[in-house]
Amino acid sequence: MKNSISKLLFKLFLLTIGVLTISWIIWARLIRERLPRDIPFNLSEIGLYILLALCCIYLYIVIKLLRPSVPQPIFEDIRNYIFLPLITLDETIKNNKYIKPIHLSFIRTLVNLLTAYNNNEKIQLLIYFSFCILPRIILINILCIDVFYFNKLFYIYKIIWIGIFPLLHRYIKYSLKYAQEEYTKELESSYYSVIIHECQIDEDSNITTKFKDITLREYIELEIDNQYFETGLQYNPSPNPKNKAYNDYKVKYKLIMDHKYTKEDYNLIEKLFYDLIYIIIYANVFIKEYALSTEKKYLTYIQVGIYSLYSICWAYISYTSYPSVENTPIFDHVVNYIDLIEPFSQIIL
Questions:
Q1: Are the C-beta atoms of residues 67 and 316 closer than 8 Å to each other?
Q2: Which one-letter DSSP state was computed for residue 145?
Q3: Beta-strand relationship, 238-241 and 152-153
Q4: Which pairs from 106-115 meet CB under 8 Å and 24+ separation?
Q5: 275 inside domain
Q6: Average pLDDT over residues 2-14
Q7: Cβ(336)–Cβ(349) under 8 Å?
Q8: 4 within some domain
Q9: How far apart are CA 243 and CA 196, in angstroms?
Q10: Which of 293, 4, 301 is nearest to 137 (CA)?
């Protein structure tokens, strides 16, 4: 009982943080009217640290782009904790009984739209450039003009809403990956396994059919490879429903408990499987092809240039604004302490 209450309170806490974060992003980027801000800034000590942290973040991104590597588990954990409130809010909204059918319809429509551009590298590059590269190029050019020519942040505030496009791109990718895993779990809860029919033709044109019972995830991996590598194999899958699938069907169509199932009933029970498996497989295929299409050297160098300029701009603002810091930064306190305290006796000099 205590654990349930603790989990509920923790979830409510995360939802509150998530709502506040989203509200702040919308307010800061779309609603808030900002006045021009002259450079150098009139900084507080905390403000200086925030600017220096921004520089470090952009430099870290540049290093990761130039030397990609597997993220360290500790960094993955930190990132997961940072995004946990937003993920909790997103999952709560998507799993709402009124929103869930709408979300399923949206994902299905999105997958149908994106699947039309499979094997079309030009369109995939156009999508990536339009959502990720072009908005950042516009933003960094305007920021450089503001910082180095006008010496005040003015025009960047007018177009900061363009930054929504890279966020939207990231969210759509996340939603597709989330849908894959969530719908896979949903199918696993309703179906035991998948029976596939492998048809083989020998030299004498004799057709041999083999039946194989495999897990749901094994079938998904098999069909993803089949579609991605375009092998053209036909497996004719038949799902093996659990009692939950039958019970959910009865509840959905308000049937009596001892309802006698017809062929049409069995077809409708299997329809959930075919609807969701289509989304899972083709979303995964598009993500794979999209990642391969956008892994270009010149795109990496463009991003390196963008983030390097971001780092230079904020470093310049930090440097020019440093004299205005009202309180002495903490590292100056350390220097003064070392200068004034005799290291062995701790006597103030």
A1: no
A2: I
A3: unpaired
A4: 107/175, 107/176, 107/179, 107/279, 107/283, 108/275, 108/278, 108/279, 110/172, 110/176, 111/176, 111/278, 111/279, 111/282, 111/283, 111/286, 114/282, 114/283, 114/286, 115/282, 115/285, 115/286
A5: yes
A6: 82
A7: no
A8: no
A9: 21
A10: 301
**Per the omega criterion (within 30 degrees of 0), is the bond before 40 cis?**
yes
Q: Is residue 259 part of a domain?
A: yes
Query: What per-residue confidence (pLDDT) applies to 68?
Result: 81
Instruction: Quick: pLDDT tens for 20-73.
Output: 988 887 887 677 777 788 888 888 888 888 889 989 999 989 998 888 877 677
Cα separations in angstroms, 229 against 5, 81, 288? 49, 37, 11
Which domain range does residue 285 map to? 34-340
Q: What percent of the chain has pLDDT over 70?
A: 87
Read off the pTM. 0.80
What the block records as the tokens of 157 is: 């505030």
Cβ of 171: how many Cβ atoms within 10 Å? 14
Burial of 297 (0-12, 13-18, 19+ CB in 10 A): exposed
pLDDT, tens only, 223-240: 888 877 776 666 778 888
- Per the structure, how many domains does the chain have? 1
Name the amino acid, one letter, at 233.
Answer: L
